[in-house]
Amino acid sequence: MPLQLFKLLLLLLLFKCLKAESPQCFHFTWIGPYDNKTNIVKESCDARVGDFNEIPCEMPLVVTPNDTVPNVKALWKNETLNREHYLCQMSPGYSCVKYSYIFKGGIQNITYMCAKVNNSNGCYRETQSTGMQVEACVCTSKLGLIPCNCSPTTQSQQILGWVIVLLSAFIVLK
Ligand SMILES: *[C@@H]1O[C@H](CO)[C@@H](O)[C@H](O)[C@H]1NC(C)=O
Ligand SMILES: *[C@@H]1O[C@H](CO)[C@@H](O)[C@H](O)[C@H]1NC(C)=O
Ligand SMILES: *[C@@H]1O[C@H](CO)[C@@H](O)[C@H](O)[C@H]1NC(C)=O
Ligand SMILES: *[C@@H]1O[C@H](CO)[C@@H](O)[C@H](O)[C@H]1NC(C)=O
Ligand SMILES: *[C@@H]1O[C@H](CO)[C@@H](O)[C@H](O)[C@H]1NC(C)=O
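Above are the sequence and the 2-acetamido-2-deoxy-beta-D-glucopyranose SMILES. Below is the predicted complex in structure-token form.
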């Protein structure tokens, strides 16, 4: 009997270890300034950006009071909130990405996600012909710590080529 129990315990432990998580990334889209906040429930990525294009969008969609950029550190610390809802598992081969649209210095929207990218860590900016800037910051989270795609949008760093965010962007079920 004790042996059985021991086995069971071992199994449980193993299960816990297996389940025990990869590092995590934030995972949602802040849609930017948005007038009617109660209307957000009716919004979806499909409705906003459609299916077959390069624009990243990850459910859930998020709005903020006063339309300020999301305070992800507060989100991470907030214990009343179901934060798993805003996180994805950074599986092997994946990175955390923070993808921002910026126009004349103003951040239009931000998408946080787990994605496969073949660039190394860092921030990459591209200015489109319309003047819209797109910034992708790539990083690698550490287990148990706040996801690395939490840093504020940067003082522009290297302007290096372009990130190929494979938009098979992986919506992880916890
Ligand atoms: C805001 O959104 C709600 C929910 O969709 C809708 O019922 C309401 O009419 C909207 N208000 C305005 C001012 O558009
Ligand atoms: C973010 O802003 C850009 C530029 O205005 C827009 O093209 C894109 O659709 C927006 N993304 C989302 C998810 O709303
Ligand atoms: C929103 O703006 C008002 C007025 O500027 C300020 O009093 C309030 O603290 C702000 N709320 C948040 C959540 O930042
Ligand atoms: C945590 O999130 C809840 C729900 O959004 C919010 O009402 C509360 O003010 C947040 N708490 C902190 C400490 O930010
Ligand atoms: C990233 O992928 C592109 C296209 O597949 C390839 O041309 C490029 O060499 C790759 N870059 C790196 C750093 O692997």
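Residues 118, 164 surround 2-acetamido-2-deoxy-beta-D-glucopyranose (ligand 5) (CB under 6 Å).
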